[in-house]
Amino acid sequence: MFSRLKEDIACVFARDPAAQSVFEVLTTYPGVHAVLVHRLSHYCWRTGFRWLARFIAYVSRWWTGIEIHPGAEIGRRFFY
């Protein structure tokens, strides 16, 4: 899990010249937050906890303003 998080942060630095620090990326990038929470909701979706997955996605949308369906498959190094 942490290796995937490190890879996501490296992806941000590779694609966003305004990124200054790991702390900044982890605390102020809603796209990173949405992808991290999506991974949790997607795990719940795959293991059969569909309501929980949808609820986590709902909270994530409220928090970040970005909606990602829990059934969506997102590949590695995704950043928008």
Description:
This protein is mainly α and 80 residues long. It has one domain (2-64): serine acetyltransferase, domain 1. The protein is 66% helix and 0% strand. The protein has 4 helices and no strands. The protein has helices at residues 2-15, 22-28, 30-46, 50-64. The protein is globular, with a radius of gyration of 13 Å. It starts with a helix and ends in a 16-residue tail after the last helix. The model has no long low-confidence stretch (mean pLDDT 89).
Give the tags:
80 residues, 4 helices, globular, 66% helix, 0% strand, mainly alpha, serine acetyltransferase, domain 1
Shape descriptor reads: globular
CATH architecture, by name, is Orthogonal Bundle
* Residues in β-strands, percent: under 5%
By DSSP (H or I, 4+ residues per run), the number of helices equals 4
The largest pleated sheet is described as: none
| CATH class annotation | Mainly Alpha
* Share of helical residues: 55-70%
Unreliable stretches covering 5 or more consecutive residues? none
N-to-C order of helices and strands:
HHHH
In CATH, the homologous superfamily goes by the name: serine acetyltransferase, domain 1
Give the arrangement of secondary structure elements.
Elements: H1 2-15, H2 22-28, H3 30-46, H4 50-64
What is shown here, in short?
By secondary structure, this protein is mainly α. It has four helices and no strands.
